[in-house]
# Entry
Amino acid sequence: MRIARSRGARLGALAVIASVALSACGGGGSIDEATEANEEAAAESGGECGDLNMAVNPWVGYEASAYVVGTVAQDQLGCTVNYKELKEDVSWQGFGTGEVDVVIEDWGHPDLEKKFFAEEGDGTAEDFGPQGNVGIIGWFVPPWLAEENPDILDWENLNDYAQEFATSESGGQGQFLGADPSYVQFDEAIVSNLDLDFKVVFSGSEAASIEAFRKAEENKEWVIGYWYEPQYFNAEVPMQRVSLPAYEEGCQDDPQTVACDYPETELKKIVGSEWAASDSTAVGLVQNFEWTNEDQNVVAGYIATDGMSPEDAAAKWIEENQDKVDAWLG
Amino acid sequence: MTATIAPSAPKPVEPGAAPPVEERKSLSRWIPAVAILGVWIVLWSFTNGTSTLALPGTSRTGLHDSLTEFQNDLLAGRSTNPVMQFTNAIADALRSAVEWLQRMVVLPNFPRPVPEVGWLGIVAFATYVGLLVANWRIALLVAASFLSFGVFGYWQDSLDLLIITGISVLLAVLIGLPLGVLIGTNRRANQVVTPFLDFMQTMPTFVYLLPIVLFFGIGPSAAVVSTLIYALPPLIRIAGFGIREVSATTVEATDSAGQTYWQRLLKVQVPMARKTIIVGLNQTTLAALSMATLAAFVNGPGLGKPVLAGLRINDVGTAFVPGALIVVMAVMLDRTTTAASERAEKVARGGGGNPRVRQGLIIGGGVATLVAIYLSRTYVSLAEFPTYTIGDRVASATSDGVDWFTDTFGGATEWVKDLITNQFLNRTQALLADSPWWLAFAAIAALAFVFGGVRAFISTVVCLTGIWYFDLWHDAMITLNMTLVATVLVMILAIVFGVWMARDRRVDVGIRPILDAGQTIPPFVYLIPVLALFGPSRFTAITAGIVYAAPAAIKLVADGVKAVSPTTIEAGRSTGQTTWQEITKVQLPMAKGSIVLATNQGLLYVLAMTVIGGLVGAGALGYDVVYGFARSEAWGKGLAAGITIVLLGVMLDRITRAAAEVRRDDGPTTRRAFNVRLPIGPPR
# Structure
C-alpha cells in the first residue's frame, strides 16, 4: 500500500524536521558537555553538607523562614535541600524515620514533645533553641473597628457590642471567628468562663480567616477573631488586639477553665536528633539561625503580597541582608 | 467525568398508554411522611434544646481519647512492629520506583543536568501511545494536553502527577482485577467485600492520612498508597458487576460443552465483561487523579502542591492554573481510555481499519518517536521545557476577574446567604440538631420506614445507633442538615438544567464540558472565591458542595429525560398538551428512576464535601475531621467523625436505594446505573 508508506514516512519526516527546527531555534548547548562539567564539579567538592530535609508547615511565615535557611544552605554550603510540605504533627513523625531533619518554626506542642523528646518519648527529636520570632496570639479586630470604638479593645466591653457581631452562623449571639484547627485555641472556654455573649465559629483555615478580615476591613463589617503575629497580612491590614485578662503562669493548664489571654511564645527550632548529631555543615547554620518578626514579615510579604516564589523571595532577602546571614554561618 | 455506560433501550411504552400509575402510589407515601414531620415539630416545641448531645469544637470524650491511644500505641511501637517493617519495605520500593521514573522524565539524573528523556521525547512518546491505542484525534489531544502542561509552566508537577497516578492505577489493576473476578463469580465474597469498598470510598482521606504516614512514610509512597485506597473500589465493583452481568444463558450454553472453571472465566466471562471492566478502569483513573490535592498534604508530588500553595497565599489565580491542568489531564485520560476500549471492541469484531495502513503508522510513528527521544537527550533546549509567561498571565487575569466579581456582587451574595441561612438552613437545623437525640432518632427512622420499607428502616436504625455511639450526634445532625439542604438545591438545578439539556441538543453540547470541569477541578481551587463571596460559613460549604455535586446530578437527569421514548412524547403532543404539561406530566414522571438515582448521587457527592466544608467554616463533622488530622492528640475525634460520615453516607444511600426499589417503574437502566455508577462515594 503506497498510501500507508507515505503516511508513515510523512509523519516521521515531519517530526524530524520539527524537532531539528526547534533545536536550532532554541540553540541550547549540548547535554554531554554539561554532564562532564557536572562530573568534574562533583569530584572537586567535598560535599560535607549532604541532604537537608526541611519541613514546610502550611503558613506563609513558616515558608519564609524555611526557604531563607534552605537557600543559604543550598547556595552557601552546597546542601541538597528537600522541602517537604507537611502539617506539624506529620513533620514530627518524620524525625524518627529521617524523612524530616528540621522544623524551623515551632509554636509549642507539649503533646508532641512528650512523644518525641528524650525525657518522656522516643528521643527522635530535640529542641534546637529559639529562632528569634516571638509569637503573639490573641483576639483581634480590624483597624476600622478599633478606631471607631476604641473601648472595644478591652474585653469587659465586648458584651455591649455582642449583637453587632451576630451573623447568620452564630444563633443570636455575637460571632467569634475561631481559626485553623492546627493552632492551640481556648476560645470556647474563654468565652464561657468570662460570660461573654459570643459563639465560636471556626473559620477552618488561615485562608478563610484572612478572607474574612480583609472583607471586614473593606466593607466596615464587625468581626472579631483569633489572630496572631508574625503574619504578613498584618502589613496589609494592621489587626488590633483586644486585651483579655492577663496571662499568668499556669492559667492555661486546664483547657476547661481557661479565662486568660494567650502567652507570648518564643518560637523554636526542632530538629531530628540523629541529624543534629551528624557532621553536616547545615547543623551549625540551623543552630545559629535567628531573625526577627520584621524580617519574617518582609519575606512573607514578598511571597504572599508580591506573588514571588519562595525561592526568589528568600534569595532577595538574603542579598539585602548578607550581614545577618554571615552571622549564622559564623 | 462521564461514566460512559450507554443506557439500555428505554422500556417501550405504547402510544397513548395510560399514564404511569405509580405516581399516585408514591404520592400516598408523602401523607404519612408529613404526619411524622408534624408530630416531630409538635414534640420539638416542648423539648428543643434538651439532650442534644452537643460537644464543643475543641473538646473530646473518653471514647475519642481511647481511639487516639490506638494511634499512639502504633507510633510508640513503630521500630519493632513487624507489620510496619513490612509496609516500610513496600514504601521503600514504591519510593524508588517513583524516583527512578522521575529521573527518567522530570528530575535531572545526576551527573546529567537534565532527565534521561527530555520534553520533546516525552511528548512524542505520549502522542505515539495515543495513536497506537486509539486514533489520530486522540493522539492530537494527547499532544496538545502534554504541551499545555509545559506551556502553562507546570511540566514537572504534571509529570509527577502522571507518575503517581500511573503507579497507583497499575497497582489497582493488579489487586483489583482478581478481586473483581472473585466478587463477580462468588456471591458470598461479594457480600463480604462490598462493605469494605463502601468504607474505603466514603471514609474521608484526612482520617487515614496519619496512619498511612506511620506505615508508609511521607512523600511519594504515602501519595501512592492513599491514592490506591481511594481509587481501587470502582475497578473491583464495576469489574465484578460486569462479570456477574454476563448472561446466564451464555454461561450455561458454554458450560454444556464441558469447560473448566478457568476456561469459563478466561474465555467467556472476562472477554464478555471487557467493556464494563474498561469503564471500571476509567473510573479508577479519574478517582486517582482526584486524590492529587489531598496527597499533597503529605508532600505527595504532583499538581496538588501548587494548588495548595495558591490556597496558602489566598490567591485564586495561582491555584486555578494547576487545577485546570488537572482537568486537562482528566479529560485526556478519560477520552483516551474510552477511545481505546472502543477501538479494542472494533478490532475484536474484525474491524479497526486496514491493517497495512496501520502498520505504516506504527513504523513511521515509532521512528519519529525514537528520533525525538534521541534529540531530547542531546540538546538542552529539547530537554528542558522552555519557560512561557502565559501561565502567570492567566493566573493574574483569573485573580483580577474573581476580584472584580466578588467586589461587584459581594453585597448581593451576602443577601442570598443570609436569606437561605435564616429562612431555610437554620430552621431545619433547629429541628434536626436541637431536638433531643432520641426524638430525631425516632423521626428519621420512621421517615426511612415510610420511604424505604423495612430494610431501609433496619439500616437506618443500625447507622443511627452507630452515630450515637461515636459521641458526635449533634455535629452529625448539623452535617446531615447541610447535606439535605444542599441536595435540595442540587436537585432543583438538576431538574431545571437536566430538562433543558434533554430538550435542546445545543444546550447539552454547550454545558457538558463545563459540567465535566466542575466535577474534576479540585474543590480547593474554588474555595477561595466562594470564601470571598460568602465568608466562612455553612453556606460557603453548601455552595462548594453544590458546585461539586450538581454536575453529576444534572447529567443523570438529562440522560434520564432524554431516554423517554419519543413515541410517548409524540402521542402527548397529538393530544395538544403544552410544553409545561409535556415536561411535568410525561418527561419527569417517566424519568423518575433517573431522578431518584440523581438524588442518591447528589446526597453522596455533597456528603463527600463535608471535610472541605470544615476548612471554610462549616464546623460540625468536617471540622472534627480536619481537627483530628491537624492535631494528633485529637486523632480519635477525627476518626470518630470519619466513621460518622461513613454511617451517614450508608444510611442515606440505603434509604434512597430502597426508595428506588419500592417503585416498580424503573427499568433495568436505573438498577444497572446504580451498580455501575459507584453506589457510594464520589471523588473528594
Strands of chain A lie at 51-56, 80-85, 102-106, 125-141, 174-178, 198-202, 224-229, 240-242, 265-272. The mean pLDDT of chain A is 85. The CA atoms of residues 185 and 285 of chain A lie 33 Å apart.
